[in-house]
């Protein structure tokens, strides 16, 4: 008989303790220790397949540095986020709120890969085979090399992998599968950890590209121990607002590419559609000729995206004014407001300031500073901005406008979308010649930028 043991494990970092603790000794988080019952199993042989490999250490000079082969999916936006396609043998974790479209995205991807001739195994622990078929009907995802299994027991899943020999494997979701030798409930820290470690080994040894779907907690992190994110090769988040149809796919970790690319999709009747020109989407509801609205050219990875910023500055009723921002770091907003107060003499201490990035996008590069300043000043003075202006540039604490990267690409994107004027850092104009047909105003200070934009 195996011995039954009770222990407590931290849901954030996986630290274990024989008794309950209010504060995790591993990561210092409060109230994250949960009880887990576990049968002690002899772990003899576990991981031995890895230990038994006969590989010898190689001099770094002799290691083949050839590009990893990539399997390109039919979804260009997904390829972009992954850094050019799925790497065989990689383990990818996809997180997102319930109902955001994770299963839809993966079923579409599975179908597209099966059409290319790959064998795909889609394991659903949440929906029945019938439900998956119904969804596939709707998506038009019917191929004979796309296999579906509704199963949560790891032993059965292993058998299925053995018999189907897939090239691409989807586990929807990691919180529903369980290893029978570990007696804690599915979704518990030890189950999630064990199962992920197992899929990692299978992926590496067999060269199967594996995607795990992960649930997210209320705070927005992938449920389960934090070390889950350390174990996998890529962590992708699928996000978006429930009331909007577009969805963003963002990499927060990628061992095979950069993490600042985003993929944009639109959820429709027949599943997810790629949005190849996001600027058009983000500008589609823009009001023209009003105060407090500016268009910024921001880089999302290697791609310039034009986004509308909106500000509302209104007299406060509180002793200390409110500063609220969505899509832009709150501290960055405070800094820009401080610069406007000190350098431009704007009396904003008695004003509430709200800032919103239209479309639910998050902008975290300093190049959006100047546009934030322009739209706050525009709302404060109630002076409309010109509808065909694009603004970008970083602001320094003395009120100077600093150079930003990839100015040329930003200008070209603005021109492509029919904008007439660009207000940008003078210092970013060196080394390239602006295209004809678009007016460029190089500025060195915030004062010059406001004079040009609102004058
Ligand atoms: P789903 O992929 O089940 O989400 P998740 O796996 O992340 O929980 O997506 C479910 C939502 O997507 C549901 O609200 C219906 C919507 N949807 C469409 O609008 N069109 C479609 O073609 C499909 C398949 C789903
Ligand atoms: Mg689902």
From TrEMBL:
Family: Belongs to the RecA family. RadA subfamily.
Domain description: The middle region has homology to RecA with ATPase motifs including the RadA KNRFG motif, while the C-terminus is homologous to Lon protease.
Region Lon-protease-like, residue ranges: 352-455
Chaperone listed as a keyword: no
Function (record text): DNA-dependent ATPase involved in processing of recombination intermediates, plays a role in repairing DNA breaks. Stimulates the branch migration of RecA-mediated strand transfer reactions, allowing the 3' invading strand to extend heteroduplex DNA faster. Binds ssDNA in the presence of ADP but not other nucleotides, has ATPase activity that is stimulated by ssDNA and various branched DNA structures, but inhibited by SSB. Does not have RecA's homology-searching function. Plays a role in repairing double-strand DNA breaks, probably involving stabilizing or processing branched DNA or blocked replication forks.
Gene for this chain: radA
Residue sites binding ATP per the record: 96-103
Domain RecA family profile: 67-216
Name of this chain's protein: DNA repair protein RadA
Keywords associated with the record: ATP-binding, DNA damage, DNA repair, DNA-binding, Hydrolase, Metal-binding, Nucleotide-binding, Stress response, Zinc, Zinc-finger
Motif (RadA KNRFG motif): 253-257
Pfam family name, one: Zn_ribbon_LapB
Domain of life: Bacteria
